[in-house]
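Dig into what follows:

_____
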Amino acid sequence: MNHWKILGIEATTDKRLIKLAYTEILKKTSPTEFPEEFKDLRKAYELAIKEAKRPAKNEDKAPNQVFEDEHEKKGVINESFFDEEEPSPAPTDAEIVKPQPIELNCIRSISELQVALNELYCNVLSRSDVEQWKLLFSSPLFWDVDQSQQVSFTLIDFFSENYFLSATVSKFLDESMKISSELVTNKNNHYRELAIALHHYIQSLPLRIDALSNIDHNISFEQLQQHLQLRNLIEEQCIYSKLTAEQLITLMQRINLVFYNDESLYLYVANYLWTLGAYTEISKLLASLPEPTDASIDQLRDLQAHAEFKLKNYDIALTIYLAQRELMKSFYAMNMTKEIGLCYLHLKNYEKAYTYLNSYFYTSPEDIDLRSALIIARRYYIKDLKKNEESNALKIATLQFENGRYQDALITTQTYPLIFHADCNYLQALCLAKLERLDEAFDVFITFINLHLQKQIDPWPLLVDLFIYCPDSIDFNLIMETIAKKIQPSPNKFYKTPRMLGSVQENVYSQLELKTLDLPATDHDGEPNKPKGYALYADLDYKQKYAWAMLHALMAKLANFEDKTIVKQIKQAAIYAIKQAMPKITHQPNWSLKFIHIAFDIDDFDTCIKLANITISEFSNLPQTYYYKGRSLAALDQYDAAIPILILAADKYGHQRLGIYSLEFAVECCEKLVEHGQPMHPNYNEICLKLQTTKEIVDAQSK
């Protein structure tokens, strides 16, 4: 056949026209699907280009004769596709399999660039690979200053018509071609408008459908092109026309089934439908997809389950969630326990609802909706357990305590005391402490400390609770004779896994929980399986450090050591521990109260100021916090800052001796300013007058 007929144009010496004809036909001629046609197209293209380069030699010959002569002389394909030298002898037909692809990093001319762009874009698998485009842009042509403008215009022309590329590739092209930074201001009106259009398209990519992935290699380029055009139509309509759910579903019905695994498209559509509250449409759309055999379309299945949940089809939602969890044996599966728990809650299976929700709660304790659902699940689970109350007393009391029903939990512990004693469970003490019956709580703590010692069980977890709830009830004898001698706590005994409420036993999954959650009894280290969220609870460490600090603070206060260096060392140990617990103390200001003066006593003024600031944030009317903060600032030579704090301390002390001390130190700070060469404080006289007046009132009161 005449090579001009194959290209669909008249004989011409215009190489640009030849290349355009070739690229148009190339879009419809996939090398994998039409190898023979592609081979003929390449033959025709090369012969046309060769003829265009030597018009004088062939001007007297008819076009058909030229094709025949060239075919006989040169064979089928040159060794280099665009080589201008005389070609080597043609290989035989038996040797020809298919034309060699163009080398992307060896492009030297605009014509080669046009062919390379088409071949790369038409390759179903390579078009979304940014590394292939980087290879192309590393070609010598892109370093040729003389052709830089023509290269830019060629690229703009091409990508204005061929823009179905991934966001990653589009971003690379934008940066490499400088579309958004330079081309949008080009003086050529035509190319400037094309660049502006491309710029707006690239800017809109976050609103568009993610790149197509997992493409079947058997899909033809034509099928892909049609699918991409439909994708583009859907996203354009969603972005600019605000499609209704019905209109969008109608468009989705045109999707070829070979693209059922186009997760990004289905996910985009499902998320769009979600914004419309079209849960029924989501359910129908995603139910038409085949059942997954792996986790490749997990987000779609999650959306389907969420939609079923919104439609109150809890049994269907639960089935999908459980299937997804089975496919996803990872931390992701842990994240699904909330949804599974909520389904069980609505299906009134309160035991499983509690188990799943409680398991997830450890990883997300700040989730208010989860907390509310968990409280409801506990409440109804308790009702189920009360059908056999005595056997379930420990579990019932624990659930009641977790739900904040401290009085109910206390009654349960008092109704079945033998059960709690047999288990060495001191939950009763915690209930009394929560109810602010601290004297009674302290007595129960002591009872269980003795019980633990009798059974030779380390009561350190119990002591942590004792120091948190009843520090003021602890006396010298308990500190020195029981704790220091018999228990001998140490930071080496700090536990990393929380204990069960009112118990020194580790909180591990029960057999029932393991079965419900489909978990092994031990982890990969052979240790009992524990709720994963526990490892995230920094409170565990902070509480123990606070208890350790309290132990030393009370020891320094209660023990009468003649050697003052020992007392200082004990106080230093207390402050060291409390500094380690500082992140927790920030959210628990009452913990800092007992350590402000200790930090001041050992000259740790920075820590004293930090503790005072934490206390003031919650308890703004405690004068001693201002007093120690002001004294610490003065000790650090920050006299200007110390003066107003000391005056505030005096105001809060009122007509007390410590109010006088506060004002005296304020006057001293004013004088220190002068000693350091600074101006006298403007309120010096006023402070002195206030000091004199306060002294007179306090002296009069003491008579």
User: Anything to note?
Assistant: Residues 104-207 form one domain. Residues 55-99 have pLDDT under 50 and may be disordered. The two ends are 128 Å apart (CA to CA). The chain is about 60% helix and 0% strand.
